[in-house]
Specification:
The protein contains six helices and 19 strands. By secondary structure, it is an alpha+beta fold. It has one domain. The protein has a six-stranded mixed beta sheet, covered by helices on one side. Strands 7-8-10-13-18 form a five-stranded mixed beta sheet, covered by helices on one side. Strands 3-4-17-16 form a four-stranded antiparallel beta sheet, with helices on one face. Helix 1 packs antiparallel against helix 5, helix 3 packs antiparallel against helix 4 and helix 4 runs antiparallel to helix 5. It is globular, with a radius of gyration of 19 Å. It starts with a strand and ends with a strand.
């Protein structure tokens, strides 16, 4: 699943042969894909194959690169997947959950969840855009939900609320007073952004499954630091734990270009099927087509790369 490459001070580029035979039609800044599940999945993977395996110069002798075709998601049908980024009004912030579109796995009973709040859609707005009143730069309310099942209507078994301010990378760790995740069960979690004294809101949600893997757990106990843990989690496709370990390491070592590059490559391998980066359109016959938007994805990665740490929100549990 990984490739260990020796790097000098030049640029190294690896491209997959499959990418040259993809079935995408490029139209402007978007890539149009057919609506069948298999073709969409293959097209997204082909579209990012080269970009996932292109490495900028780093001052290190080796860097780990996740395979562009690694299965970080749960492989669930699209209808059961995530609402990765949602906003109902253009002036509202763009809230993006850092999870593949079909969810992901964890070994933790109380994992850490990550999402990014962007006050502007950087792929479609200009530097001269005037921020609106509810653009995410001011104070806002955050509500976290954990549900008992994988459906959007599944019963909420934990709810927590709090206040936050400004755009950036946020995180929330499931606390001790919350029910721990159930082994082997797919559950849905949700984040709600509320502004304007509750008059406007943005909801995002994703899927998570807690697995039991004694071999990986044993390997983790022998890891010397968060970076080693991140690499173990990543190569074994434990997405939530890998993102958390990488971000924890980078927050303490912001100048570690290798770790930052590895986290970026992990995001490139796992996030392109996130709804935040796909436009869905219907033609006059009602046939749906999906457009992966490379410019939006690239801008998101660039912005996120500047976030060397995540803001931990102190949310208080509330009755459902």
């Amino acid at each position: 699943m990984y490739r260990n490459l020796g790097l000098g001070f030049g640029k190294v580029m690896l491209c997959c042969a499959e990418a040259s035979n993809n079935k995408l039609e490029k139209t402007g800044k978007t890539t149009t894909m057919t609506s069948t599940k298999t073709q969409i999945t293959n097209s997204i993977k082909n579209a990012i194959a080269c970009s996932t395996l292109c490495i900028a110069t780093v001052t290190s002798t080796a860097i780990l690169i996740p395979s562009a075709f690694a299965q970080y998601g749960l492989g669930l049908p699209k209808s059961a997947g995530s609402g990765g980024a949602t906003r109902s009004i253009d002036s509202l912030p763009h809230v993006t959950i850092l999870v593949p579109g079909d969810g992901a796995r964890t070994l933790a009973s109380r994992p850490t969840f990550y999402w990014y709040i962007d006050p502007q859609d950087t792929a479609s707005t200009s530097p001269t855009t005037v921020p609106q009143a509810n653009d995410g730069k001011g104070s806002f309310k955050v509500t976290f939900f954990l549900r008992d099942g994988n459906e959007r209507a599944s019963k909420s078994i934990f709810k927590a609320e709090g206040q936050a301010q400004g755009s950036g990378l946020y995180k929330f760790t499931l606390p001790e007073n919350a029910p721990e995740l159930k082994k082997g069960k797919v559950q849905r979690w949700q984040v709600r952004w509320e502004g304007g004294n509750g008059t406007v809101q943005v909801d995002v949600n994703a899927l998570i499954r807690r697995d039991d893997d004694p071999l990986v757990a044993k390997e983790i106990t022998s890891a010397k630091n968060d970076l080693e843990k991140a690499r173990i989690y990543s190569k074994n496709a434990y997405w939530y734990d890998a993102i958390d370990a990488y971000t924890s390491w980078i927050s303490k070592n912001p100048k570690d270009a290798v770790a930052s590059a590895e986290r970026s490559n992990l995001l490139k391998a796992g996030l392109p099927n996130n709804p935040a980066f796909i436009n869905v359109k219907k033609d006059e016959k009602g046939t749906e087509t999906e457009e992966f938007v490379p410019a939006r994805f690239a801008n998101f990665l660039t912005t996120l790369d500047k976030s060397k740490s995540a803001v931990s929100i102190p949310l208080e549990s509330k009755k459902n």
